[in-house]
Design goal:
The chain is built from five helices and ten strands. With 252 residues, the protein is mostly beta strands. It holds the Pfam family Dockerin_1.
Length: 252
Amino acid sequence: NYSAQGPTPTPTNTPMTTPTPTVTPTPSNTPTPINTPTPTATPTATPPGEITPLVWIGPPDQTAQLSGGNFTADVAIANVTDLGSFQFVLTFSPNIVHVEGAELGHFLGSTGRGTVPVDPEIDNQLGTVSFGAASFGEQEGSDGSGVLATITFSPQATGGSDLHLQGVQVTDTVTEMISVDLQDGQVTVTGTIPGDLDGDCDVDVMDIMIVASHWNAVEGEENYDPGCDMDNDGDIDVVDIMLVASHWGDTC
């Protein structure tokens, strides 16, 4: 009885049943891993809300007069949270300015924490000043913006000097480092000549107008400006205007 040979091809229908692999669209359901990257979008949402603290020189650009005596610039910080300590190196052009000192600003201890400033290291040959301070106590650190330190300069010659920050380190009250951006400053030292009241290196009508704006003011009054009292007699009058006019056209 070979009738059994006929049905043997029928098992070949069993591969036809193998559309089971066609059921393998199960991998097509694997777009589920495609949905998994969507949670990774959550960290990308946080950076836009964060503001990196900025350590900067203030004012960023200033002018000083060669015969005007010492002047100052601040090293300040903005947008900080829980300030605990800081340190920095400031470089400058020693042929244009020298550093006379550095003092701790009010901001580090503004929440009542104690402060320990480090003595500044000043090198007027190389043109560097290093300074820093730490704080201690149970209070939280300072938030927001304020002055870290005030640097006192003395002008040495006319010209410009960059005030460049480097080696800046800022920490919170648990000594975790705080990442900061930096903004340098610059100072221009100008020469002075008698009668150059606006410090632009020439004596012209603007200087006459400055004296005239203080006309008849006497020492002790709000409008009195000793810089306009050319003869130092305690009042500003026609004699002071004539003294400025006598230098008309002079330049540095």
